[in-house]
Fold:
Amino acid sequence: MATKKKEDTDLGELLKELAKNWPIMVPIMLLAGIIGVFVAMWVRPVYQVDALLQIESKNSKPSGMMGSLGALFATSSPAETEMELIKSRQVMGAAVEKMRLDLVADPQSKLDRLMHKEGRLELSNFNVPWNNVPKEKRNLPWTVVAKDSLGNFELFDQDKKLVLTGSAGQTYHFTYAGDTASFGIFRAEVRPGQTFSVYKLKRLDAIEKFRGAFNVSEKGKKTGILEFSYQDIYPDRGVEILNEVASSYLRQNVEERNAEAQKTLEFLEKQLPDVKAQMDSSLMNLNTYRNRVGSVDINAETQLVLQRRMKLQQDILALQQRKQEAIRLFHSEHPTVKTLEDQEDALRRELAGTSSEVKKLPATQQEVLKLQNQVELTKVMYTTMLNNIQQLRLVSAGEVGSVRIIDFAEQVTVPTKPKKKVILCVALFLGFLLGATIVSIKSKFSSGVKSANFIEKETGFTVYAKVPKGNPKGTKGTRPLAVVEPDDVAVESLRALRSSLEFSMMDEGGSIIGVSGLIPGVGKSFISVNLAALFAGLGKKVLLIDADLRKGRLHKEFGIKRGDGLSQILLRKVEPEDVIFPTEVENLFVIPCGNVPANPAELLGSKHYSEIINKFKQEYDLVIVDTPPIMLVTDAALACHVADQIVMVIEFNKHSIEAIKDGMSQILKGNPQAHASIVINKYEHSRTEGYGYKYGKY
Structure:
């Protein structure tokens, strides 16, 4: 729970810091949003089309007239292999060439692209004798300028020279670089004046570009269903291209399958006459022997031996065919091949075992059995070969492959890219990150200190109060904030400062308090005015002196017109009693700064200044001197050289510890015996310090 609370606090502090730096965050977020909208509009819409193909499994059972040859000529491979074949240059290249994807025409108008009003130009021909063109100009594009919306155009070469004027739908042949060139446009959807950059990609570059927009994947696992997808800025062209790829792959698969069937058919047709001759020869030998020895009765036992040997020989022949097929797919040491060889050896041993049974028969029956066995075996071989030849002729003549197109690509109307909302959200998020990074870096490299404990440890001076942000003027109308809103959180902190100063004055004596700030704008006048009002509220007679002779402003706080003041007292032009003004706060009196003198530093460092302050010390219970910022002029140190208590006002997270040390050193140079303390103004409480915010309404 403690960890979570710490994380929440860190997040809250971060958000608070970002909100504080809204002048940084808002412009960056606004710029990021504009960039996001621009990118979303700039990216050309891309449409994705898809098609489905089925790859026949090798283990699928053949049916119909194809018989057992279906497995023999099933050339399909695992889906992974097929996907690589589809992405091969053989298939991709055929589609690139047929669809002329190596010919590119890019619209050039950036405004048209931003407004999605680009024209469309597709080339049918672009052949130039590049070898006759200077090498440094071969890769430069040519330019087509549309003369009207009917397809009439002008063609310029890479040197911007007019080489051809024509119209879409025709192929033009013209002389260029000492040879014949050709150019043609088969589709033009343009507006007058639109310009296109045209060029021809190398075959390999065109194939690679096509692969970048094409994808093939298997749907599910081991389903044999392949999904083709292709992305194009023109949905109708995407459909044509994807269907061409599917058809090209199907066509090549059929051609490969038919080519293999044709090779096997030619081999079997060459062997067929020899097998028929063997069959005729074995039949003639059997008839000749029977004519010579006469009729020979074959008993049931001999008939069984003959059938058994025939069966074994047919099984051996079938195993030999299966072994030959396995050798085509695997190496000779593959377990599948070895298993078939073991089975063939077992059948041959069994066939050899029947020889002993044959030897027991009479010699005449043995010879008849032998000749009849040869006749039956050659008949089986001849019949099987005829069947295979017939099936192979059907395969070779038919458009049959191991691939089937399930779904052709169809045109879509909704683009898949760009996702404008996503782009805008990403842009805003990146803008937020950039702004947060800048704010974090700014905070990291900021030399301002926040911790009162750190200030006390490093400087040796006590922080008497941490005053939250209050009324920047110190008064509302002409009345101090401490009087108008006594429950304000800033006033509560100033009461703590008053108490600390009271205890300090009780211990060390003295009744003159000098208040200075490190730099302008830290709120020293706010502290002076309200601290004086709080002391006056205790019944003490308080005199507040504006010793900032250059830019004093206490007269404005109390609604006094600028005129004679402290500077005129020091110049001996007026008496002190003439420029002491009462305020709306009982027991509180003010001496304004007066008109700006020519030599304020000399006046504050004069003996007369010390005499005047000591005189006021005798007449009032407390004298508070509001001095200029110490880091800009020496006036503050001179004004505080008569003070018993010196209060240095700094701003929260504004100053480096070195600046604070330097300021305290400067202000104490002329009065090292004075008791000095620090007040942190405009303090920002963390969430763990929320008590201070609610005390006034406790």
Q: What stands out?
A: Confidence is low (pLDDT under 50) at residues 1-9, 58-77, 687-698. The chain has 23 helices and 22 strands. Residues 14-43+418-445 form one domain. The chain has four domains: 14-43+418-445, 103-200, 257-399, 452-697.
